[in-house]
Design brief:
This protein is α+β, with helices and mostly antiparallel strands. The protein is built from five helices and eight strands; from the N terminus they run E-H-H-E-E-E-H-E-H-E-E-H-E. The chain has an eight-stranded mixed sheet with strand order 6-7-5-4-3-2-1-8, with helices on both faces. It binds coenzyme A.
Amino acid sequence: MRNLQVGVLTPQYLTAALDLDRRCLGGLWHLDGYQREIDSPNSDLLVLQRLEASDTRHSPSLLAIGCSWAILEEAHITLLAVELDYQRQGLGQALLCCLLKAAHDRGLERATLEVRVSNQAAIALYEKFGFQTAGRRKRYYAETGEDALVLWRGGLHHPHFPATLANWQQAASDRLGRSGWQFNGK
Ligand SMILES: CC(C)(COP(=O)(O)OP(=O)(O)OC[C@H]1O[C@@H](n2cnc3c(N)ncnc32)[C@H](O)[C@@H]1OP(=O)(O)O)[C@@H](O)C(=O)NCCC(=O)NCCS
């Protein structure tokens, strides 16, 4: 079994975060963008890292990164990316689960994000977590002229949400387990 842990991005992993961003998101954020999120009390900038229990010489590899901003009562999910060689193993859903838990822990009521209309993988992932399309921003992505879908997921503050979250966390751990990961998620 390979070990996976969730945590916040720390400055020592900024270079790894930038590399992952460039490979998976085409260079969405630069160094100052990541540093700003690390410094902001309103941001949850989370990472999944592989724990190399058998070799303490190596730092844990950064395999996925996600970010959510708390704005009023809303969680704006601004970033979610999984290293190319590790996609389709359950890391994306595990990290999304962690971001939604962080939003719930902050007392936020709903989550929102923008996604390219062509990004079927991400849309399928968000729909699994109850996100629904609330609108469309025309030509939102300047470099391609592609539209964005605006997705929303309400109910984060409802009394039954912790039970939903627990089910998602279990499903995420099970999914990772089937891909050979032991996940020490919160
Ligand atoms: C979107 C992304 C984060 C998904 O991460 P992932 O670790 O591959 O996803 P998971 O393995 O956790 O998959 C969870 C669910 O998402 C959906 N999904 C993920 N990849 C998919 C694909 N290629 N095609 C269709 N559905 C997909 C499925 O519903 C899947 O559940 P299943 O495995 O039970 O079918 C990843 O593809 C990625 O980093 N893409 C590039 C960056 C990006 O587009 N980020 C989103 C910006 S809004």
